[in-house]
Amino acid sequence: EEFLNFTRLKTSWRKSILIDYYSAGFLWAKEMNFSLMQLSVFMDLLNFILENIRDKHMTLGDNLKELERAMTETGETESEQEGDLSFFSIEQAKAIIDYFVNSLFKYYRVYEYLFHGPR
Predict the structure, then answer these.
(1) What is the domain partition of the chain in residue ranges?
(2) Less CB within 10 Å around the terminal CB: N or C of the chain?
(3) Radius of gyration for the chain, computed over Cα atoms and rounded to the nearest angstrom
(4) Alpha helices, DSSP H only, in 1-119?
């Protein structure tokens, strides 16, 4: 606060948690050596799942089904038409699902409370 001259900084825990989750996801994807396009798609998936909780009030089961649908659709992009059968390799897709399970779905009730609990 002192260094950046933020003397009257108000912290929103909701925004802080979301920034932390997006940052952690971005760093994880960078460590996976995703290409720029793969990184972009991964961040879209991350945002998609959080929007499902926040805006659509989806249950854990419904959100898992939506993730499965979204993951299968990523292979049906222009890259498939050019001969590349999938956007992510099978190992990468498994790692992405594991990441979401361990970082978000395991704590699904906490994220539901984050978006829908009393302030």
Answers:
(1) 34-73+85-118
(2) C
(3) 17
(4) 13-31, 36-54, 60-73, 78-81, 90-103, 108-116
Q: Alpha-carbon torsion 5, 20, 52, 87, what sign?
A: positive
Contact 21, 103 (CB under 8 A): yes
List pLDDT tens digits, range 80-100: 444 343 678 889 989 999 999
Q: Which long-range contacts (CB under 8 A, 24 or more apart) does 95-98 make?
A: 95/32, 96/42, 96/45, 96/71, 97/67, 97/71
Tokens of 12: 């929103």
Please check whether residue 22 is in contact with residue 46, taking contact to mean a CB–CB distance below 8 angstroms: yes
Residues 95 and 32: beta-carbon distance below 8 Å: yes
